[in-house]
## 1
Amino acid sequence: MREQLQTLLAATLVLIAGFVGYTWLFDDAQDVGLSVISATGEVRRFDGEGRAEDAEVGMRLRPDDELTVGANSAAELAVDAQTRVSLDAQSSIRVVGVDASGVRIELEEGRVSARVRPERTPADAATVSITSRGREVSAADADFTVVAGDDGSLGVESSRGSVALQGFDDVVSLAEGSRLAAAPGQQAQTTPIPAALLLEVSWPEQELTRASQVPLQGITTPFAMVTLRGAGAHSTRVRAGEDGRFTVSLPLEEGENPIEVAVQDVMGNRTQETHALTRDTEAPAVNTEVDWGP
């Protein structure tokens, strides 16, 4: 009898040791989630039934929860001990899924950055996936940013590591140090991340003109939004092409016309140039006096 009890006790100890070991080995998988670790300004959480509350540190986000970040506000989320997701001002996300394999987030608008650090082997690493309008950006070991414009444009930058892409035509990955620009109805374009936003405008050589409108040409980054503002309420918006080139025509009023060309790329970066053109439609004065001499 004593021997049977000793055998049963030994078996029980083995089972307990195995359970503890298993838990210790795979505890990271249980730590995957999505929690608020900082919320500055106006940050609101909406649950799957539409109930709203202010986001607080420690709040756990679940599938179908939405998180909105107002103007001059920001939020940071933790996926596990190493991986972070940051939301810039005027951004909105919806949690699609959270499990041991990682998290999947729908970016409805705004800018989201992910710092993904694997805590386990690459095969078992938690993946962060950002989706938007049927397109997906995901990585298990990378630093990347996704920006969704209200006009349907989407920008992606990878500052560290490679990210996987779905729904971007034939582009299936983005290498470290690269940017992807996508616009509705256009082929997605990839370029190196520029040091500064490019803007070159071909201004007319003559600043004095009789013309009622002036055509302007320039070059910037692919699919950037170009806004021209002239005298009065004149304003024109065009999107640069896949090669970054744009052509616009702006009406001129009589007299001096201050002109501003402002550009915003798919990542939200902005720059501008200003110039002045003068429209003068009055004929030059003619001296009609006759000098008859002495």
Note: Confidence is low (pLDDT under 50) at residues 8-30, 285-294.
## 2
Amino acid sequence: MKLEKGDISSEGTPSAEDKSILDRKRKQTDHLEGEFKKIKPATFDGESRIGEESKAWLLDIKKYFQIYNYSSNMKVRMVIYNLNGKVGIWWQDLKLAKGLKEK
């Protein structure tokens, strides 16, 4: 949580009112983080019957990443984790064929 100018009294020690404001801000932040963590990224099974399904999955996963501030490496790991079914098997086969290592 970022403290802003005026969050703490000029004496450097928070007053009872300052503590109350900080506590409310902390509770709001905790609540929002809890709500966002309930959102699960979309999975993809490779069983696309029409091209829009894969595009819709990509759009959903991009929206998910807009909410969370993941590094590029973590984004890749999340996408790999959400590959299911035939596309999950495809990824495993590609990894073996190319000698790729997930870090």
Note: The mean pLDDT is 78.
